[in-house]
Structure formats: structure tokens, C-alpha cells
Amino acid sequence: MEQRTVGRSGLRVSRIGLATHTWGAQTDVDDAAVQLVAFAEAGGTLVDTSPAYAGGAAQRILADLLGDLVSRDDLVLSGCAGVLPRTEPAQTTVPGPAPRAEIDASRRGLLRQLDRTLLELGTDYLDIWHVAAWDPHTPLDEIAGTLDHAVRSGKVRYAGVRGFNPWQLASLAAIAPISVAHTPYSLLARSAESEFVPAARHHGVGVIASAPLAGGILTGKYRDGVPADSRGADEATAAEIRHRLDERATRVVDALVTAADGLGTSPLAVALAWIRDRPGIASMIVGARDIGQLTGVLAAETLELPRAIAAALDDVSARAE
Questions:
Q1: Which of 27, 34, 181, 300 has the most Cβ atoms closer than 10 angstroms to its Cβ?
Q2: CB 37, CB 65: distance < 8 Å
């Protein structure tokens, strides 16, 4: 798998990253082990985890697999802090759809989570450590100082952010050693192109695309209805998924299916190849419930989109957001 440099840093990561947010929820330990081995054997290095995924279960599963199946030194481990597992007390609560996210990006909160993560994973450092959400109750200079301390201490190699909008990213990157920024980016979510990606480029920050398949919509699995075993059939996510199945989504998915048929591949692979080749994108984080889904994801690595198809997808997905 091709490795890319992240922003203006010296960090290099695989251009497809493995998400672990389903581990411990939709993916059991055995399936997670098969995924991790297959990903590493394909040349993948970037593995993303969080103490908030599946209430902490994802990180514990990853900890059990490191060393025995895949050498920790062969991976670029990406973790985060600032979003509290629901069993921990929160400093602040961010309004939004249930469940509500509990945010604490104070120096105390961030470093406490970092130490717990390192202990749980059995490693001395994280390759990438993110502030997982914007915390309006913690001063930016405190967050910047915390990130600088974490890097200088050797516990963190590179610092990053998730869940920030463009002005938040720019404000923190101006005073903190930010190398990486995650943002939702897909054929159905292109708002990052207008301000987020340019802001990241200006500050030398590499962009990692999250949710590149738009919750599974871009795989085409909802084209003829909602499969019983899909996220769209789950009460917790059904309303969100179905709300996004609008006319524009239908046009984009139809275009993906047409392109995939012509290229002899899947709509999923076409959607991922499109994101992979966007300007400023260092990598993308993709999750899979099982090895079958992961195999489909890895197929995107070798797919080269003809310019005409990429341009057609640009046109059909374009929208002022």
C-alpha cells in the first residue's frame, strides 16, 4: 500500500487507514484480529482508535492484538482524548442528537486520558494523538500547551485534531504543533473543500478524511431499500441514514454504480478512490464490520480512476454546502 507524507511533517501513513469504531460493538475479537492481520499484510499502517469507541471496548481489543498478531512498530497508531467515555464525569456537555457527547479538553482531562490509553495499549507513545472535539470552555493556549507538552515528553509523536471547523483548526494550528486534522469528506460531504482543506494546507496540516463512504450510502447498499442487517435498519442510526437518502444521494450512487460496472469493480472502491485522489488528502479512515467488507475497502488501493470518470463524479456530487 502506498505511503503518503502528512502535511509538512515527516510523518508517513498508508493512504487507507483502518478504523476500529465497530470493534467491540459490531465486530468481535476474532473478526477484529482477522481484519488487523489482513490490513497489515496489505501494507496498511494507519490504525485509528479512541477510548470513546464502543465505550472503550475497541481500544481494549486493539490492546489484546498488538504484539501477538502485528508488531506495534509496524503500525502508525492514531488515538485521541477529549471525548469522555460515558462512565466518566464530564466537564461540559455539547448539545446535539442523542447520545450527547461529553467533552473535556482541559490539560488535566487530556493528559489523564493519554496516560490511560498508553497504559491500556501497552505502548510508550502514540504516533498521532488528537484533541477529539472543540471545547469552548478550555482556553486555546491551554490546549496548545498540552499538545506541546505531550510531544516534548515523547508520549506523542505528532498532534492532531478531530471535530474542528475551519476557523477552529486555523486558530489552534497557529499556536500549537498540529500536524494532522480529521474531517468528514466524501462525495456527499464536500464542504471541507471550500475552507477546511485550504486552512489545513496554509498551516502545513495533513488532512485525513473520515466517513468517506457517508455512513455506507456510497456503497450502494441502500439503492434498492434498507437491508435488514445494515446501519440504516438500526433505530439509533436509521433516521440519520434515511434523511441523507435524498435525490442528490440517489444521483451520486447511480453514477458510482455506472462507473463501477464499467471498471469491473464496486461502487465502494470507486468512492474511496475518488476521495484518495483529492488534493490535500493524506489518508482516509475506513471501518469494516468483517473481513469481507475490509477486502472490498482494500481493493480501492489499486484502482486508478480515469480522469473522465473522476470529473463526472465531481459534477454529479457538486453542491453548495
A1: 181
A2: no
Distance CA 232, CA 215 (A): 9
Enter the pTM of the model. 0.89
For residues 51 and 100, is the Cβ–Cβ distance under 8 A? no
Q: From start to end of the chain, where are the E strands? A: 3-5, 12-14, 17-19, 46-48, 76-81, 92-94, 101-103, 126-131, 156-161, 178-184, 206-210, 281-286
Tell me if 294 sits within 8 A of 37, measured CB to CB.
Answer: no
Q: Are 228 and 258 in contact, with CB atoms under 8 Å apart?
A: no
Q: How far apart are CA 240 and CA 264, in angstroms?
A: 31
| 168 band by pLDDT with thresholds 50, 70 and 90 | very high
Element spanning 34, H or E: helix 29-41
The three grid cell numbers given for residue 49, joined into one nine-digit string? 482508535
Asked if the model's pLDDT at residue 163 lies above 80, the reply is yes
Could you tell me the three cell numbers for 133?
472535539
Residues 222 and 241 sit within 8 Å (Cβ to Cβ) = yes
